[in-house]
Amino acid sequence: DAGKSGYEHYMLKEIQEQPRALRKCLRGRVDEIEGRVSLDLDLDRSGVDSTHLVACGTSYHAALYGAQLLRAQGIPAQTFLANEYDETCLAGERPLVVGVTQSGETADTLGALRTAQAAGAETLAVTNTIGSSAARECDHALFVRAGPEIGVAATKTFASQQTALHLLALWLGGGDVDPGHIAALRAIPEQVQSILDDDSAREVAAELADSAAYFFIGRGPQHPVALEGALKLKEISYEHAEGFAAGELKHGPLALVTPETPIIAMVTGYDERARKTVGNVKEVQARGAPVVAVTDGKADVEQYAQHVLTVPETTPEIAALLANVQLQLLAYWIARDMGRPIDKPRNLAKSVTVE
Ligand code: G6P
């Protein structure tokens, strides 16, 4: 218990450690004066024509997020569940294959990386664990520097993976970054801290008790966060939770929506995506579902929501990191109110070393 520093669970301690972890992830990699991102990677970035990201679980959600950032830099990027990756995925391509793995020991991810190597692809591990199998076996390694994570449910390592992949995308894109983007990156740790200082998620969790199921929706960079928010909640509370792309609601999931199924909607910024997601929020509200809006207030979604979880204003991509922190807290307090064994959920392991 000493390792919990007074927290009831490692998970809450690790959630609270995020500002520090993210500072470490950014340290020495973002040059404010030069406006550059630099990574200590001995990789010929001019030779990278396309990328494949392979991962499992929470790391897969970070990979989905990272792929969007890579594509925004003009670098083709596809994401694969590591356990679905085989040589046919590499047909006709010579991508840089990026294994995203906290532990660096997940058998499925190591298997995918070995498949890539056997096909002659260059490999990069994005991992939290120095000396891990992934770090040793890949041609290159980028460390996310989150520090040890004990709770089975990944929290700080996800935020650190998001940030490391953000930096990787900028670096592969040439490394020159405009001052506003640099400032937004550097503000992440204190913006996360401001969310941690807010008690709203705990209050909302109490209000949502005894729901039949929980659905998370988001678009663009908030889509992987919707998936991750649902995964976190199901892992530690054992409640039924699903994440959807907001635009997919009308293609099926809407049939599940009732007054007993809260919808947790990520609506940040005020762009086309946010406006469309507000439309989705109106649809579920019309069907009586309670809405929890995770928002920076720019899209005026509050008027359609029963509950609001606030995030500070930033870029659309970083907003998806901040929203996830609110979702971590929400999952934690729902599971805590239910008395679940949060750090060691039934049937789950921190690292799955069998295929
Ligand atoms: C297990 C853990 C998850 C983790 C996944 C991938 O399922 O319970 O939290 O996301 O493995 O682990 P990795 O170490 O490869 O990121």
UniProtKB/TrEMBL annotation:
It is found in: Cytoplasm. Keywords: Aminotransferase, Cytoplasm, Glutamine amidotransferase, Repeat, Transferase. GO terms for biological process: carbohydrate metabolic process; fructose 6-phosphate metabolic process; protein N-linked glycosylation; UDP-N-acetylglucosamine metabolic process. It comes from the Archaea. The active site is at K350. The keyword Repeat applies. Residues 39-178, 204-345 form the SIS domain. Its EC number is 2.6.1.16. GO terms for molecular function: carbohydrate derivative binding; glutamine-fructose-6-phosphate transaminase (isomerizing) activity. One of its GO terms (cellular component) is cytoplasm. It catalyses: D-fructose 6-phosphate + L-glutamine = D-glucosamine 6-phosphate + L-glutamate. Catalyzes the first step in hexosamine metabolism, converting fructose-6P into glucosamine-6P using glutamine as a nitrogen source. Homodimer. This is Glutamine--fructose-6-phosphate aminotransferase [isomerizing]. It comes from Natranaeroarchaeum sulfidigenes. The lineage of its organism: Archaea, Methanobacteriati, Methanobacteriota, Stenosarchaea group, Halobacteria. The gene is glmS.
